[in-house]
Amino acid sequence: MDYEEIENRKFVKKFKLEELIISNIDNLVLHNVFIEDEILIDNVKTDSIEFDTMITFGAKEYHINQDILKEIYTSIRFFVEVVATDTHFDLNKILTNLEGRIENVEKIKYLEKKHKDLYSQVKNESEYLVYAEIKEFNGFENWQELIYDCLSGEITFIEKYLTSDIEMSDVPKEILSLWIKYYTIKTQIDYCKEQINKLKNTKQKSGFVDTSLQILLLEEIINIKDWSSISATKKGEILSHLLGKNKDNIKKIYLELDKKSSENSEKLLNDRKQADEIIKKLLG
């Protein structure tokens, strides 16, 4: 959040309430509160009754200055991102759960499930798709445009912005609650995706072994005498360099291989069968 946008607001607390009346439209245009849009085709008197983001008066149409809406948008965003939410707490909970998992594979599984759970809360809400910049909705290309439209009819709130200091409690509840919900969820979703990418990149880098080095390591292993007598721990250490896999996982597999086949897991039995078939096929 750019705090300069908050500090540089020009319209907040600039007017007196009695100035914000439709009969004072010329003065409001002069002070850039409203912009004269166009002369109406129908000259029948259609003067607006009260202050709003768009009014008609004297057969003319006036729209509120977009700079005012932008300032209000920035103010609500400040309340959402700085005052109303504590995303550090939410992200620390995710981080704590990650720290409880040793293997990157398990961490990625947790993050993917967390991402899925979070996204399932909002995936059917069209407004969220606009907020997250996934797709347009009802002609709104972004969240700012949607909020501008939501401010139409929020006369009391806009008047208070222009005449006094606003507080978070002044923000229309529907706008505030929806924005808080989406900001909180999207922040966590983005964090999950960022961590998944980091873990996958780390896995790829740590698991990378040059091809020529792999071949040389394999040849050295083949020439080891009494390979079967080497401990599962040592095999894990040796093969981790060749396969780029975690040594403890390799050790677990060797410990299972030492058991009777009747005690092996179904997965290991299937993998052994598949390995035999591959070798037979390759060697004829």
Primary descriptors:
284 residues; mainly alpha; 2 domains; 3-stranded antiparallel beta sheet; 3 strands
Write up this protein.
This protein has 284 residues and is mostly helical. It has 2 domains: 1-206, no CATH class; 211-283, no CATH class. Helix content is 60%, strand content 5%. The chain is built from 13 helices and 3 strands. The chain has helices at 3-7, 25-30, 66-84, 87-99, 104-120, 126-131, 143-150, 155-163, 173-206, 211-222, 232-243, 247-257, 266-283, and strands at residues 34-39, 54-57, 60-64. A 3-stranded antiparallel sheet has the order 1-3-2. Strand 2 and strand 3 form a beta hairpin. Helix 4 packs antiparallel against helix 5, helix 4 (87-99) packs parallel to helix 9 and helix 5 (104-120) runs antiparallel to helix 9. The longest helix is centred in the last third of the chain and has 34 residues, at 173-206. The relative contact order is 0.09.
The dominant shape is rod-shaped
Distance between the termini: 66 Å
> What portion of residues belong to β-strands?
5-15%
**Would you tell me the overall average pLDDT?**
87
